[in-house]
């Protein structure tokens, strides 16, 4: 007997999509930050870790304001052309807000900002698809770093293991990952169990705008990229 359409479950915990009002709030917040700060930086990031970034932002909350989100919304706030930019020259950095980018507004000296970004890096466990930074191989024999309760889990990760008198034993050499190759879900889980961190969360400054100058920091980004993009 076919199921009645009247008996379909209804989810009561639906979340509203971020709409026009949310975007307008971001635009207004960015424009407010422009008025209150001397410099605007575009930065990119690799191996983003939300918790680590939150800690970095919290550390600098008294001197810097950060924005991450839709590149188009950030571009609109800055101005995408001379005609709609809030302050002269801002459209130049707007054109470099692309890919994994964010904005930083501050009154700190540029040397201090460069130092903070250049020195910052946090190591973390790599996720599936990340390229391995080294070869990791486990040799045949007892795996004393794991308790016997881990044996079923390790077997599910395609590791040739067995229990031998309460000790997990590797039946043959096992290559967890090869340098330069993407990590499989199983490899990523095993590396986490081994405590091996292969991902480095870094922030890279792309460019800086102030009322006095516009600077591009990353190699390969020329003035022509700004003018023609």
Automatic annotation (TrEMBL):
An example Gene Ontology molecular-function term: structural constituent of ribosome
Keywords, ordered alphabetically: Cytoplasm, Nucleus, Ribosome biogenesis
GO (cellular component) term, any one: nucleolus
Compartments it resides in: Cytoplasm; Nucleus, Nucleolus
Gene Ontology process terms (BP): nuclear-transcribed mRNA catabolic process; ribosomal large subunit assembly; rRNA processing
Compositionally biased spans, kind Basic residues: 1-20
Region (Disordered): 1-22
Record InterPro entries: Mrt4, Ribosomal_uL10, Ribosomal_uL10-like_insert, Ribosomal_uL10-like_insert_sf, Ribosomal_uL10-like_sf, Ribosome_Assembly_uL10
One Pfam family here: RL10P_insert
Residues annotated as domain Large ribosomal subunit protein uL10-like insertion: 126-196
Keyword Nucleus: yes
Superkingdom as given in the UniProt entry: Eukaryota
Subunit structure: Associates with the pre-60S ribosomal particle.
Family named by the database record: Belongs to the universal ribosomal protein uL10 family.
Function recorded in the entry: Ribosomal protein P0 is the functional equivalent of E.coli protein L10. Component of the ribosome assembly machinery. Nuclear paralog of the ribosomal protein P0, it binds pre-60S subunits at an early stage of assembly in the nucleolus, and is replaced by P0 in cytoplasmic pre-60S subunits and mature 80S ribosomes.
Name of this chain's protein: Ribosome assembly factor mrt4
Taxonomic lineage of the native organism: Eukaryota, Viridiplantae, Streptophyta, Embryophyta, Tracheophyta
